[in-house]
Amino acid sequence: MSILIYAESAEGKFKKVALELASYAKNVADAMGTTVTAVTVNATDVSDLAKYGVSKVLKVSNDKLANFNAKAYADVIKQAAEKEGTKLVVLSSTTDSLYLAPIVAVNLNAGYASNVVALPVSTSPFQVKRNAFSNKAFNITEISTDVKVIGLAKNSFGLAEGAVSLTEEDFAPALNDADFNIKTENVEKVTGKVTIADAEIVVSAGRGLKGPENWGMIEELASVLGAATACSKPVSDIGWRPHSEHVGQTGKPVAANLYIAVGISGAIQHIAGINASKVKVVINNDPEAPFFKVADYGVVGDAFEVVPKLIEKLKAFKANNA
Amino acid sequence: MKILVCISHVPDTTSKINFANGDTEFDTNGVQFVINPNDEFGLTRAIWFKEKQGATVTVVNVGGSDTEATLRKALAIGADEAIRINANPTDGLFVAKELAEVVKNGGYDLVIAGTESIDYNGGMVPGMLATLLGYNFINACINIEVDGNNATAIREIDGGKETVSTTLPLVIAGKKGLVEEKDLRIPNMRGIMMARSKALAVNEPTSSASATKAVKFEKPAPKSAVKLVSADNLDELVNLLHNEAKVI
Ligand SMILES: Cc1cc2nc3c(=O)[nH]c(=O)nc-3n(C[C@H](O)[C@H](O)[C@H](O)COP(=O)(O)OP(=O)(O)OC[C@H]3O[C@@H](n4cnc5c(N)ncnc54)[C@H](O)[C@@H]3O)c2cc1C
């Protein structure tokens, strides 16, 4: 009857979202008087999950699952849910989990609510609060099916330690040949750089920077903060920066703890994609720029003066707090 | 190749979002509706297939008669025919079930939907549809090529992209990248005239299955005003980020 989570790992280590998922599920489980079971795929050391409240892990080890495959992974989750008699499956909002969730839901005859931002409003009837209208509103959704699937929006709950004792169990679900109709041919991943999806802090810049040659200071600011770099849409359209950095409604969503926007006007389509970020800092020479209306902190000034100074201040701060 | 493009009819990105009837319904007053941006990329890619390698393109929407203007726009852009399932799209599962009926009856080889629609942001219809049909499925798809019965696609992954190969029949959930924004089609006069004589079928729904319902809406609490820091006092900004916001 326990709550089931799929804890995502990469190269044997759990992603931070997996630990956030565990923290969230533990809180829901406490409210419902049950426990949290996690299913993992090719993860080696699962002890981290126990720190965040997972009391049982179903460990799947299978070379056929070395590459992510949505249908096959969904089969794994379905069989884990059935084995545990789970009524609630909680997934995260990584690109892979967003791919999996609707498949899992249909296979389990479950209703699915994505983008969930808080603990359930009520567990009977089961109601959750989720983001809608590109983060311009919330929607309370009721799931009426016996088994339920929810997707937790990134960074919406945070980490909450609460160690429990852990049972590990090897789990070998049956895999279906037809699941492997989609073959991975090639994976291209940015390495050695913080990516927007994983970043706690994102430093983003817009057309106000005038040209690609001026991005050095943005990269330096990002590197001091351990942040990912991003940009507004026109910047990637003109080719100053790669498309993978374009954030906003038609680009990537950013749900970081800190979003720093330099020389970005704050058009509604840009804001829609970064609204889920917690703290927003805006640097813009136009005090009327709409971005100031949604920002927490703002500096009215020329980016070419402010950013280099800010880099110096942050370096000094890091040196003092090291 | 027979292509079906799923079209969601959504408030334009700049719309003010308000709710009516005690915050239980989206208030459509004064709202301009458009083809969901992710679906627009898919529609243009479908037209590209039609022009480059031959295909018929059908567009489909589950919705009331007010969505016909959106379907007509898709016809004006170049789709051959349109189908409207005459029902209120109550939840993702319901929409997926209705679309599955259309796919089964029409024998489509490639179904193109958008990764998510910008109103409810559910991101579930394409995956549910593919699973109900037992079709192959690729989410967050940013490129697709089809050669005979074989398809090669690129999908977004966190921090990169992945190339995958598969076979038809296939459902993809697409987004920007399927085509670039500058290549999106805008209806021209000839297209608009031709769209008038294209078929727009209206089918009644076959099931009433819903698994979820939207019970209430809320707007985020009003934000407190921005704290401005002087450009000459960036120590203060660092201090605020560390001690007040606790993000560095
Ligand atoms: C359907 C649709 C979807 C869209 N999707 C997206 C999306 O996903 N993401 C996105 O970003 N946009 C999107 N847009 C575009 C969006 O409307 C804006 O055009 C875009 O966000 C503006 O980018 P910008 O702020 O970099 O450029 P600008 O609007 O040119 O603004 C530049 C800013 O820099 C400031 N500036 C100039 N010089 C300096 C300086 N020296 N120091 C400091 N500040 C300076 C200016 O005051 C100005 O505020 C979309 C538009 C449409 C119609």
TrEMBL record, chain A:
InterPro entries listed in its UniProt record: DHS-like_NAD/FAD-binding_dom, ETF_a/b_N, ETF_a/FixB, ETF_asu_C, Rossmann-like_a/b/a_fold
Superkingdom of origin: Bacteria
UniProt: FAD binding residues: R207, G263, I264, S265, G266, A267, I268, Q269, H270, N284
SMART domains assigned: ETF
Keyword Lyase (UniProt): no
Example GO molecular function: flavin adenine dinucleotide binding
Family in the record: Belongs to the ETF alpha-subunit/FixB family.
Protein name: Electron transfer flavoprotein subunit alpha
Species name: Flavobacterium sediminis
TrEMBL record, chain B:
Electron transfer flavoprotein alpha/beta-subunit N-terminal domain segment(s): 23-205
Entry-linked PROSITE patterns: ETF_BETA (PS01065)
Phosphoprotein keyword on record: no
Record carries keyword Electron transport: yes
GO cellular component: cytosol
Cross-referenced InterPro entries: ET-Flavoprotein_bsu_CS, ETF_a/b_N, ETF_b, ETF_beta_N, Rossmann-like_a/b/a_fold
A GO molecular-function descriptor: electron transfer activity
One Pfam family from the record: ETF
UniProt keyword list: Electron transport, Transport
Protein family membership: Belongs to the ETF beta-subunit/FixA family.
PANTHER family, per the entry: ELECTRON TRANSFER FLAVOPROTEIN BETA-SUBUNIT, ELECTRON TRANSFER FLAVOPROTEIN SUBUNIT BETA
Protein name: Electron transfer flavoprotein subunit beta
Species classification: Bacteria, Pseudomonadati, Bacteroidota, Flavobacteriia, Flavobacteriales
